[in-house]
Design a protein that fits this description.
423 residues; alpha/beta; binds uridine-diphosphate-N-acetylglucosamine; elongated
């Protein structure tokens, strides 16, 4: 088991480069099932991406990978049922239910795993499949979807909450359906737009309007090449690292208009943020100012950046309040922050953070992806040497985080647990 050994207190200075977006590439890999032949570029090297390729391989796809490029041929798909060995470690495995159902009129998958962020039901996904004409059954921990007629039939589906995964699953299931599907109150995250652009380039007929998405069913999709959008949450992560550590950092290869709510919060905290076409520059003051922030569906402040901004606020001047509106259980990392000397209370959906002068090193444990990245941000500014275990969570969503951080002046090393015990 590997962990990060971090010596805090170094100012961060230099440039980092964002990779392709995890939350865009995962649904696009599921969408590949709908196309005969796909070439993707800007594919990040993440453990969740490797898991998706394992799923595609298991289904029967032919895959060639070379650095950030992947070529996927789907003619050989023969398996339509994903077992728990393939789904238990990754929430987005659920998205394959929609794409397989869309193309092969049946799909089966064990209940998905992924980050522990509280209850993560998939009722909206399954209700939507039923609305499109599928019979959906729970087969002792595995969900089986079968088209009741020869094809799915377009329908109007209203989501009670703009769920990202449900929106993606509905799009994937209805691309090849008969007639038109309308999603009312869909998620509008940039990753949804990336999925739609990919599918439209492959011959789908999808339009995004304010408050709805319209999918006109087509007969088939064609060969396609596509480059994955940059990761806005990775950009927000490096902004948080810089903000927490008096940083002076240029973040390259990002789309600043995808994370305006995040840049606005860092400005409010007293950072100087300059926006360029494909990059963002951030310079942080010695001490940040406390702020109030609430997570909301896009274009609001993203829940995925919530624990990161909390890490930056631990030493801010004054009392900050963060309200989490998307997930029930996304404050778990606060227990680890307290081990570092932070002063914070959780009251229902709110975290109240009283900025302290210093935080101190400790042995802490990552329990989810973004919480793990937030621990890195906190340990980088904690006095002394900290050890973060559970970093396999971090590897799910960040390519070479430690290399990037070292290149901007951080002291961070990946060590195996045995090495740690000996040393
Ligand atoms: C996606 C992102 C995740 C991000 C989240 C919210 C990927 C791979 N993951 O997750 O990083 O934090 O969006 O921006 O893209 N819900 C239901 N029933 C459902 C579906 C969702 O109640 O059928 C609830 C969830 O429990 C949660 C809320 O809706 O409280 C939002 O979830 P959703 O937008 O679906 O998140 P994911 O797609 O799982």
């Amino acid at each position: 088991m590997a962990c990060f050994l971090i010596e805090g207190g170094r100012k961060l200075e230099g440039e980092v480069y964002c990779k392709g977006a995890k939350n865009a590439v995962l649904p696009i890999l599921a969408a590949c099932v709908l196309c005969p032949d796909v070439t993707l570029t800007n594919v990040p090297e993440l453990s969740d991406v490797s898991r998706s390729f394992k799923i595609l391989e298991f289904l029967g796809c032919e895959i060639e990978r070379d650095k950030d490029r992947a070529h996927i041929k789907t003619d050989g798909i023969k398996n339509l049922a994903l077992g728990s060995d393939l789904t238990s470690k990754m929430r987005s495995s659920v998205i394959f239910l929609g794409s397989l159902l869309g193309r092969f009129k049946m799909s089966q998958a064990s209940y998905p795993g992924g980050c522990e962020l509280g209850a993560r039901p998939i009722d909206m996904h399954l209700d939507a499949f039923r609305r499109l004409g599928a019979d959906v059954k729970d087969m002792h921990g595995s969900i089986r979807c079968v088209c009741k007629e020869s094809n799915l039939k377009g329908s109007s589906i209203t989501l009670s909450f703009p769920s990202v995964g449900a929106t993606e699953n509905i799009i994937l299931a209805s691309v090849l359906a008969n007639g038109e599907t309308e999603i009312i109150n869909p998620a509008r995250e940039p990753e949804i737009e990336d999925l739609v652009s990919f599918l439209n380039r492959a011959g789908a007929d999808i339009s995004i309007e304010s408050g709805s998405i319209h999918i006109k069913g087509v007969r088939s999709l064609k060969k396609v090449s596509y480059s994955i959008m940059p990761d806005r949450i990775e950009a927000a992560t490096y902004m948080a690292f810089a903000a927490a550590n008096e940083g002076n950092v240029l973040i390259r290869n990002c789309c600043p208009n995808h994370f305006e709510s995040v840049t606005a919060s860092f400005r409010e905290m007293g950072c100087n943020v300059e926006i360029y076409k494909n990059s963002v520059y951030i310079r942080a003051p010695q001490r940040l100012k406390a702020i109030r922030v609430s997570t909301m569906p896009y274009p609001g402040f993203p829940t995925d950046a919530q624990s990161l901004i909390m890490a930056a606020l631990l030493r801010a001047e004054g009392t900050s309040v963060i309200v989490e509106n998307i997930f029930d259980s996304r404050f778990k990392v606060s227990e680890e922050f307290i081990k570092l000397g932070a002063s914070l209370d959780i009251v229902g959906r709110a975290a109240i953070i009283k900025g302290v002068d210093e935080i101190y090193s400790a042995d802490v444990s990552a329990r989810d992806l973004r919480g793990g990245a937030a621990l890195v941000a906190a340990c980088l500014c904690a006095r002394g040497k900290s050890c973060i275990s559970g970093i396999s969570h971090i590897d799910r969503g960040y390519e070479n985080m430690e290399g990037n951080l070292r290149s901007i002046g951080a002291s961070i090393e990946r060590i195996s647990k045995e090495q740690d015990e000996k040393g």
